Amino acid sequence: MDTVHDNLTAYPVLLGRESDDIxxxxxxFGVYGIEDxxxxxxxxxxxxxxxxxxxxxxATTDAGRFHTERHLGLVGDHFTQKDLLxxxxxNAAIGHVRYATQGGTILxxxxxxxxxxxxxGFAVAHNGNIxxxxxxxxGLVESGSIFQSTSxxxxxxxxxxxxxxxxxxxxxxxxxxxxxxxxxxxCLTEGKLIGARDPYGIRPLVLGDLDGKPVLASETCALDMxxxxxxxxxxxxxxxxxxxxxxxxxxxxxRRPAKPCLFEFVYFSRPDSIVQGKSVYDVRKxxxxxxxxxxxxLADVVVPVPDSGVAAALGFSEASGIPYELGIIxxxxxxxxxxxxxxxxxxxxVRRKHSANRGVLEGKRVVLVDDSIVRGTTSxxxxxxxxxxxxxxxHFRSASPPIAWPDFYGIDMPGRDQLMAARMSLEEMAAxxxxxxxxxxxxxxxxxxxxxxxxxxxxxxxTDHYFTGQYPTRLVDHDRSASQKDxxxxxxxxx
Length: 495
Ligand code: AMP
Prior knowledge:
The protein is an alpha+beta fold. It has 2 domains: 3-260, Aminohydrolase, N-terminal nucleophile (Ntn) domain (Glutamine Phosphoribosylpyrophosphate, subunit 1, domain 1, 4-Layer Sandwich), CATH 3.60.20.10; 282-463, Rossmann fold (3-Layer(aba) Sandwich), CATH 3.40.50. Helices cover 31% and strands 24% of the residues. Helix 9 crosses helix 16 (443-449). The longest helix is centred in the last third of the chain and has 19 residues, at 476-494. Residues 267, 305, 308, 370-379, 411-413 line the site of adenosine monophosphate (AMP). Adenosine monophosphate is lined by residues 267, 305, 308, 370-379, 411-413.
């Protein structure tokens, strides 16, 4: 097998980067046995663009030849040209959109990753974060592996390459037994599209059907985009193998309780997606409704922080009877890659993205509703902007509980030292944000929005580590670096 296209031109040197530094928010997509597979994949990725805007890629297979293209930037900038099918021919394809949060944007980390293994060509696209990737990587490098990227996903490729199993699916399963953390994978081999979800199902993956052919995607909105019907979610710990003979399921991990990520509902998924059988939009509205019941202030208008607070603000307004108004307007044409050449322009910060709608805010007591508070820096700027526009009072409401614990499973979140709710009391946060009052949805309130009753044991099973600090897996790399830091500290103290 050969890689016909691979525009892998840039190889910047990475200084001092550790593989677990890269937290990736990503979307994956795959189709099998369908004409125009690359075009369908480009469309699917377009629907998943909110999951990652820094890089995108597609791999196809066509009569034993593999073709890959990876780019920095948006899907629409690279995968819409008329010659797409001649560049990426074949009737099976996988694709990836990526947003890596640290270490700059590096083309060689953009996926799908591809390798010519002795079992044949193998392309892989991954959403999630492997929590023992650094430990595994160290071992692999020591025994002679050469890495092309700093992505934790490459560890999976290397483990597959080293497996002694005879068949490619068994090799993948071998690799999966060695990794820990969160993953939704789509893989392409000659004659197979493979999907895999980690043992706790932390990251999402759904199966669709397009004219009798299988489609895999991070979210159902991508199925809608290509005209596929939703079949089911890939279950936690399930590997699905799509071939000309149909879709087969392998369960290498036995049965464990599912622990899907709550943040897909809070922030990450598109509101028109269905996650775990629930409309994301409906859940967000219910979060806002419950938030109003728990923390309603005296106010004149409910204003969402767009777009993340829109659905919750609607629910808040309906439940509180306080009118909903668009007091902040979002500019949709500000990309993450906007160049900020001087400090003066940088300090304009949030104003590039959000503008105050003065007519709605002036002289009003405003309830600002957003989905979450992470560092508090954006929220503080938005509060100031609303005050500058003449609001007499600003009451801030977060439709998720206080985020006090970092994520290690593929959501971009800073460490505990930078999480506002980990550093401060409610009163301190209110003072820092300069708001008249501050309120958060409670954890039982969030579970209620997801359909649970009031009793704790009614709570649906999700991982809620951001609020509770209870992680469903070991955090091997994190614990190792924490103990290394402690060791260095104790050496310093002894010295
Ligand atoms: P801050 O005020 O700085 O804590 O930022 C809060 C804003 O960040 C809210 O509007 C959230 O919608 C948004 N947000 C929450 N989680 C993430 C994430 N993982 N990546 C990017 N933005 C996020």
